[in-house]
Amino acid sequence: MSTTLHLQATCLENQYALRTIRMIELVDYLKKARLSYVKASQNSKDKKQSATFFAFAKERILFIIQLQNQIKKYTKASRFNANTVARTSEKSSRLDFLSNSEVSAVHSCIEQEQSIVSIYRQTLRELPLSSELEMIFCKQLVAVESAIEQLKD
Predict the structure, then answer these.
(1) Predicted TM-score (pTM) of this structure
(2) How many CA atoms does the CB half-sphere of 76 hold within 13 Å?
(3) In tens digits, what is the pLDDT along the chain, a chain of 153 residues?
(4) Which long-range contacts (CB under 8 A, 24 or more apart) does 96-101 make?
(5) What residues have CB less than 8 Å from 20, skipping those under 6 apart?
(6) 3-state secondary structure the chain
(7) Which residue, 16, 22, 34, 152, has fewest beta-carbon neighbours within 10 Å?
């Protein structure tokens, strides 16, 4: 009987760890997208387009904060080591910058957003999430998909 409880606890810890790693991955992609939007905003000659890029950058900051709060919650609720979180984040924190071309800036933003969408969808499909976390993921997914559509227009 105690073996069964231990296996269930281990399985739950693994789910917490996987969720946390997936959120760290999303934070890293969102940071890259934010920087791409800031760079695109600075390089855009069109004021309206520049404002749109900047608004998307601000929105990504909010997403990052929401996910970082969830990461803190999950690392407290499990034995998942906070040092592992830091190491995972450091490994993928190298950021790529855009060229000065506005067309390549928009293309880069779209590509990064599409990567983010695939991570959200994969996480929603594969991992059991709390209702709060699922709501956060769904809202962020819809906003990112909306941003992609606006960028394509």
Answers:
(1) 0.77
(2) 6
(3) 455 555 555 666 777 788 888 999 999 999 999 999 999 999 989 999 999 999 999 999 999 999 999 988 877 755 555 455 545 444 444 444 444 455 688 888 999 999 999 999 999 998 888 899 999 999 999 999 999 999 988
(4) 96/32, 97/35, 97/39, 98/36, 98/39, 98/40, 98/43, 100/43, 101/43
(5) 71, 74, 75, 78, 80, 85
(6) CHHHHHHHHHHHHHHHHHHHHHHHHHHHHHHHHHHHHHHHHHHCCCHHHHHHHHHHHHHHHHHHHHHHHHHHHHHHHCCCCHHHHHHHHHHCCCCCCCCCCHHHHHHHHHHHHHHHHHHHHHHHHHCCCCHHHHHHHHHHHHHHHHHHHHHHC
(7) 152
Tokens of 135: 């709501």
Name the token pair of 140: 């962020």
Locus of tokens 């950021």: 95
